[in-house]
């Protein structure tokens, strides 16, 4: 197994709370996993979330999005 493994993906979800407009969101994402041994990896990922507020156009939803960066640790069982 290669120590570095790039990946791409996407997500779809719902954002809600006191400080945001409740709405659906979608995000393409990409990152890399670095395996420190056969069962443990460290990963970094970036995604661009865009929101489906009512009344927004597709272009406006994409233009008003936000980047989210993640750094974490994972385990394979």
Strand content: over 45%
**How would you describe the shape?**
elongated
How do the strands line up in the largest sheet? 1-2-3-4
Distance between the termini: 15 Å
Q: Report mean pLDDT, rounded to a whole number.
A: 88
The helix content, as a percent range, equals under 10%
Number of helices: 1
Count of β-strands: 4
Radius of gyration: 16 Å
**Low-pLDDT ranges:** none
Summarize the main sheet. 4 strands, antiparallel
Secondary-structure element order, N to C: EEEHE
Q: Helices and strands: which structural class?
A: mainly beta
Summarize the structure.
The protein has 77 residues and is mainly beta. It is 8% helix and 61% strand. The two termini are 15 Å apart.
Could you characterize what this model shows?
The structure is a single chain. By secondary structure, the protein is mainly β. It has 1 helix and 4 strands. 8% of the residues lie in helices and 61% in strands. Strands 1-2-3-4 form a 4-stranded antiparallel β-sheet. A hairpin with a 7-residue loop joins β1 (4-15) and β2 (23-35). The longest helix is centred in the C-terminal third of the chain and has 6 residues, at 58-63. The model has no long low-confidence stretch (mean pLDDT 88).
């Amino acid at each position: 197994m290669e120590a570095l493994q790039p990946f791409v993906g996407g997500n779809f979800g719902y954002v809600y709370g006191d400080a945001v407009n409740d709405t659906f969101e979608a995000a393409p994402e990409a990152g890399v996993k670095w395996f420190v041994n056969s069962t443990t990896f460290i990963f970094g990922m970036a995604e661009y979330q865009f929101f489906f507020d009512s009344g927004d156009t597709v272009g406006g939803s994409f233009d008003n999005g936000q980047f989210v960066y993640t750094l974490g640790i994972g385990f394979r069982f």
